[in-house]
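Lab channel / #folding
Pinned by the channel admin:
"Please post every new chain as: sequence first, then the structure tokens as a reply. Keep commentary short and put observations after the output so the thread stays searchable."

First post following the new format, from NK:
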Amino acid sequence: MLLAAWLLNSIRLAAALGIAILAMQAPAVTREYQAALLQLVRSSDEDIAQRKASAQRFYNIPTDDEARFIARLRVIEPSNAETLAGALEREKSLHTSYEWIERKPDLLRPMAAARDVFSDDSGVRRQIAQTVFESYAPQLDLSFAAVIYGLAGLFLGTLIGELITAAVAPRRQRPAV
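Reply from TO:
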């Protein structure tokens, strides 16, 4: 009886703490996702600048207006123009995502990042998120957002622990005194 009660309490505690620690990772994972977005934006900027410089050097096309630059390059080299247009679009999209998440308060950034990943039709952001999760090392973040997420995880974990223990060992009716 004592061992069973101890085991059930341990299950409740493990569920509560496990989900709390997991929930506390949300702000740190979001920062990693934002850093990956920013890194891709910067590398795309460099790639685009090199392509523009190359096209300007070989074809003497002014790079002031992107639309006009792409249109003139499309006449000379349609394949290169198409790839450059795709790179420009991707860079703008990733930059918009980064800025959108960055403008949110710290507490809402994990939800904004999740929405950004799940609303992506192209799958690029899902690949970025997958890479972030594969390379992520758990952290102990004591920021305000992490503490709030940890408390929410603690409450949710407690509820889940109670549900698990209720399913495993239904409570017995106590005799009336």
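NK: Helices lie at 2-24, 26-59, 66-76, 78-103, 109-118, 124-135, 144-168.
TO: also worth noting, The chain is about 80% helix and 0% strand.
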